[in-house]
Specification:
Length: about 350
């Protein structure tokens, strides 16, 4: 069976999602939404960096794309600085009877206990009204800290603690808004960026901790956040911007699922703008990795390295996009409503092994 799909945005993640849709034999690209006139009217292949034209041209006309009644929208538009607007977009798609896989807002990958019912219920109502499904995922939050740790726990006799970590050098991550405005790199250590404002870390990654707890039947007492920043000892340049000595250049944060006074499920990020920074913090395998540790009987540690043309940052974008696109058929066939990772069957790279 072939499913008709619209790609919504062609930015850092979207252009890789577009390539993934085109590569999938069970998917037909029906349309592409873009946010500005510089991409309007261009063939999808050009926006995806492919040579062979698809015959599908991008448009800024959202209503025209919804009128196509596709089976699914792959939504990868930036939402970090427009959370509620993005939620309204998703509700519009669902009311129109269109299934959605989305990379954001990330708290929707498992919102229960993280955001109030006043946010969740209207989304579920929109989905039920349109008879459609919404699934939000990616790589982190996403398969690096939902299916990977849950797979490891299936081989456990006893579980004492789970730690899911992203250990990355972000110096090649080409998203200045995220790096500087949201994460606060290059700013004074006393100036807290959006990401580190009270409650933001637990909003963004508390969903990871709570989903693992729900899947493992663990009742948490609380979810807490902690962070530490370190300065650049000398000037750096990242994404074409100078990082002055003494300004923020390394970040470590933890979101902790607490039970009986101890952290039992931990989401941790260790982000550096240069591999020599913060030598005492945990180090990645290779240039960057996602690490899952299950402490108990037995102890497990899984380090997932990822590269695309030697760049781990690019690989993370490709992996995020492909994860969404891989799930399109399963989401279309699923029940109506807001889905989580544990609601879906195993999704694979079916059809991607070529002669």
């Amino acid at each position: 069976m072939t499913y008709r799909v619209v790609q919504w945005s062609t930015g850092n993640v979207g252009r890789w999602a577009l390539r993934s849709i085109i590569a999938r034999p069970e998917l037909e690209l029906a349309g592409v939404w873009v946010s500005g006139p510089d991409k309007d009217g261009k063939d999808a292949a050009e926006l995806a960096g492919l040579d062979e034209p698809t015959g599908v041209v991008a448009t800024t006309d959202a209503a025209a794309l919804l009128a196509l009644k596709p089976d699914c929208i792959v939504h990868t538009a930036m939402a970090d600085d427009r959370l509620m607007e993005a939620v309204e977009d998703l509700k519009t798609f669902l009311r129109a009877g269109i299934n959605v896989v989305s990379s954001s807002p990330v708290f929707l990958q498992f919102p229960y206990g993280t955001v109030p019912s006043e946010i969740i219920d209207p989304i579920v109502e929109a989905a039920e009204e349109g008879g459609a499904s919404l699934w939000v995922n990616g790589i982190d939050p996403g398969w690096a800290n939902d299916w990977l740790p849950l797979l490891l726990t299936s081989g456990s006799e006893r579980i004492d603690k789970i730690v899911c970590s992203e250990l990355m050098d972000y110096s090649t991550y080409d998203n200045p808004k995220v790096l500087f405005d949201i994460m606060g790199f290059g700013s004074a250590l006393e100036d807290l960026p959006l990401l580190l404002q009270p409650g933001v870390l637990t909003l963004a990654w508390g969903s990871v901790v709570r989903q693992l707890a729900a899947a493992l039947d663990v009742e948490l007492d609380d979810v807490t956040q902690h962070f530490e920043r370190l300065p650049a000892p000398e000037p750096l340049e990242v994404a074409g911007r100078p990082i002055a000595a003494g300004t923020a250049a390394a970040l470590r944060f933890q979101v902790n699922g607490m039970r009986s006074g101890r952290a039992v499920i931990v989401l941790e990020h260790i982000t550096r703008l240069h591999p020599d920074l913060a030598p005492d913090w945990p180090q990645p395998t290779g240039k960057g990795c996602y690490r899952v540790e299950v402490k108990g009987e037995p102890d497990y540690q899984l380090d997932l390295q990822l590269y695309s043309d030697g760049d781990h940052a690019k690989a993370g974008l490709v992996g995020t996009a492909a994860r969404l696109v891989s799930a399109v058929p399963a989401v279309i066939e699923a029940r109506s409503g807001l889905l989580t990772a544990v609601d879906l069957p195993l999704t694979t790279g079916r059809g991607l092994v070529r002669p």
